[in-house]
Design goal:
The chain is α/β, with parallel strands linked by helices. The protein has helices at about 1-20, 60-65, 120-125, 160-165, 175-180, 215-220, 245-255, 265-270, and strands at about 30-35, 40, 50, 55-60, 70-75, 80-85, 85-90, 95-100, 100-105, 110, 115-120, 130-135, 140-145, 155, 170, 190, 230-235, 260.
Length: about 280
Amino acid sequence: MKLFKKLLVLLTMMAMLFGMSITSASASAQPGLAIDGKTISISSSYGTPFIDSANRMQVPIRVIAEKLGANVSWDKNTQTAVINGTIKIKVGSAAINTASGTITMDTTAVIHDGRVYIPLRAMANALGFEVTATNQNGTVCANITTQADLAQNIYVTSPWLKSKLGNVTVIDVRSAKDYDADHIQGAINIYWASLSNLAVKQGENGWAEVLDADALGKVLGSYGLDGETPIVIYGDPATGWGEDGRTLFTLNMAGINNACILDGGYSAWVASGLAAKSGL
């Protein structure tokens, strides 16, 4: 969580220093969009991205957020777009309020052709993604990067995990009771104790230490963890004591280095408005 907040501060500073300029372009430049290198098209009925007078690529919030796997609602009374239940963008405001802090844009959210627009970089950053851009022959192409290198990143966001369900192994390290009550779809429950030496009494030498290599390998194998499929671990920072971090450390000791932690844990997943799945 701390790492994501530091990233959020850095992104906010970048937004203020560089004015959210996507690249050197003019208002007449033609914008193009891609997600992880794959070009996306947007029907004009959902709004049309454009380059504004300050060289920012402005995009309609709803269609971009939904293409990134997010849910969007509209609060008519406050003129606020709400993404995943926690990200709030109010028309006329320069602030994007998120569960991890506030991103301050150098412009304000505006209504254009009946749609709410903000700079693309701000949109992507609010969801925990980054943007790169090129300008070739008057065409500005912005690429939103959602792929995470789990060998380099300790944390991933809830939207990122939602987009990868089915392609990653999700480990719930909360208690069996909490897991049975509700959990992320497809998650397996691995409590820290099953990876630890509890053969001796608490307080005695060796109690709660990570299992030796052979025993640990057998336990991890019984869960189908082979070190090939990326792993996302989550606990609940609101009620836990760091089980997710201990499990990540344990997996690293076993030579599994493609695991990371869900930023904010299960609480963040629920707060983001992403569906949980009981009993699976």
